[in-house]
């Protein structure tokens, strides 16, 4: 089998490495960040994604690092009950924990941190290491995330835009709050639309909370921890008391503001010996909760076709033709969920699940 270089050690790059490892295929993975530098949020992972994860992470270990949510309960911002739905084995886990689990099967010699790969079209149209030497591999798997610079260089006409929704996400340790929310995923919605506050439990003493806001209505000028705390306290002051209480009792060392981007139209998933997976191939907005599952399916299928097919080009084209139609469904569902979110509550339809199913 040919030599493979993987660019980016997020969920897609690391899961690709895990599948390559399973088939004993030679690879090396390059990551821009420091090994321990893991800012982030958390994931809701539907059952399908869990089935892919069980193939590469010992189930007991995976389950110890997160929590199954029982039901999704929707409230107005003042706490009026609106609707609820059972969640069929939806798992919640922090990005940090999942990346660490995926990285533990990769030997130190096969991963380089603090290595930014870049595309040099001025000189030789090739991918380079930070010292200027060429990346030497038969196949290059690009998993450098939704704002992939490598993709932008290969597909110069792409149109990327910021989505009309941003998220403030925080992960806190607080047993008292964790006990009070059991295993429900609670989400409060402003009656005028465009603003929500969600709470879910990651473990016995850890919760993740997040706020989704219409960034045309609500603007945050500075994203320091102190400013985000002040902003959250101001905006959610008059919501159901559990919301300002959580905001007040949180520490802000893990708080993060996420702006979300999407492509107006998907690019091809491959060009010559370079193939894209995960958010680099297809940014998905958080409303779909399908980013991780899609990344896992991409790496599983790409590896399978590379093993089964003699021609790399044929393997790439099978991968693309199987994955693209499904991704297009999630993109369209994501846009529907986004439009719903922006509407006043009384105009939103009944489809309340915060997950896109195909
Ligand atoms: C607020 C928020 C909430 C979300 N919630 C969910 C959810 O509930 N469920 C879900 O399934 N998905 C969710 N998602 C989506 C999910 O985060 C992504 O789909 C998933 O993380 C994609 O992983 P990735 O590996 O493709 O990209 P990334 O996680 O972006 O990883 C890319 C990696 O490449 C590295 N890199 C970048 N450029 C270079 C370079 N030039 N050289 C080397 N390395 C490079 C980066 O440092 C990074 O480590 C959410 C996203 C956001 C923003």
List the helices and strands and how they pair.
Elements: E1 4-7, H1 11-22, E2 27-30, E3 42-45, H2 47-56, H3 59-64, E4 66-76, E5 81-94, H4 95-103, E6 111-112, E7 118-120, E8 126-128, E9 139-142, H5 149-154, E10 160-173, H6 175-181, E11 184-189, E12 195-203, E13 206-213, H7 225-235, H8 242-249, E14 256-263, E15 270-271, E16 274-276, H9 291-308, H10 312-342
Parallel strand pairs: 1-2, 1-9, 2-6, 4-11, 9-16
Antiparallel strand pairs: 3-5, 4-5, 7-8, 10-13, 10-14, 11-12, 12-13, 15-16
Bound molecules: flavin-adenine dinucleotide.
Helix content: 25-40%
CATH superfamily of the domain at 4-41 and 95-161 and 264-337: FAD/NAD(P)-binding domain
Structural class: alpha/beta
Parts with pLDDT < 50 across at least 5 consecutive residues: none
Largest sheet features: 8 strands, mixed
* CATH fold descriptor of the domain at 4-41 and 95-161 and 264-337: FAD/NAD(P)-binding domain
What small molecules accompany the polymer chains?
flavin-adenine dinucleotide
Q: Rg to the nearest angstrom?
A: 21 Å
As a percent range, the share of strand residues is 25-35%
Protein name: Monooxygenase
Family: Belongs to the 3-hydroxybenzoate 6-hydroxylase family.
Keywords: Monooxygenase, Oxidoreductase
Domain FAD-binding: 3-326
């Amino acid at each position: 089998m040919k030599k493979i270089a993987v660019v980016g050690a997020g969920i897609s790059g690391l899961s690709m490495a895990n599948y390559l490892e399973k088939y004993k295929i030679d690879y090396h993975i390059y990551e821009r960040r420091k090994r321990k530098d893991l800012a982030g949020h958390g994931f809701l992972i539907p059952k399908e994604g869990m089935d892919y994860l069980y193939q590469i992470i010992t189930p007991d270990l995976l389950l110890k690092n997160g929590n199954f949510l029982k039901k999704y309960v929707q409230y107005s911002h003042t706490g009026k009950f609106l609707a609820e739905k059972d969640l069929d084995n939806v798992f919640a886990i922090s990005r940090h924990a999942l990346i660490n689990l995926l990285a533990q099967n990769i030997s130190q010699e096969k991963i380089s941190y603090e290595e930014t790969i870049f595309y040099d079209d001025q000189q030789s149209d090739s991918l380079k290491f930070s010292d200027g030497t060429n990346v030497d591999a038969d196949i290059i798997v690009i998993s450098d995330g939704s704002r992939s610079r490598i993709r932008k260089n290969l597909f110069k006409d792409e149109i990327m835009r910021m989505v009309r929704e941003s998220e403030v996400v925080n992960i806190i340790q607080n047993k008292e709050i964790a006990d009070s929310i059991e295993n429900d995923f609670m989400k409060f919605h402003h009656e005028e639309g465009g603003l929500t506050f969600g709470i879910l439990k990651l473990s016995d003493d850890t919760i993740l909370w997040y706020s989704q806001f219409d960034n045309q209505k609500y603007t945050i000028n500075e994203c320091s921890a102190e400013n985000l705390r002040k902003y959250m306290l101001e905006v959610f002051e008059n919501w159901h008391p559990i919301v300002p209480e959580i905001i007040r009792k949180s520490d802000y060392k893990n708080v993060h503001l996420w702006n979300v981007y999407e492509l107006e139209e998907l690019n091809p998933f491959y060009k010559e010996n370079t193939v894209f997976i995960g958010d680099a191939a297809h940014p998905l907005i958080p409303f779909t909760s399908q980013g991780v599952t899609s990344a896992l399916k991409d790496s599983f299928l790409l590896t399978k076709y590379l093993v089964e097919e003699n021609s790399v080009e044929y393997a790439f084209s099978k991968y693309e033709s199987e994955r693209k139609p499904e991704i297009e469904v999630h993109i369209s569902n994501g846009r529907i969920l986004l439009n719903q979110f922006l509407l006043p509550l009384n105009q939103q339809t009944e489809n309340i699940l915060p997950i896109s199913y195909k």
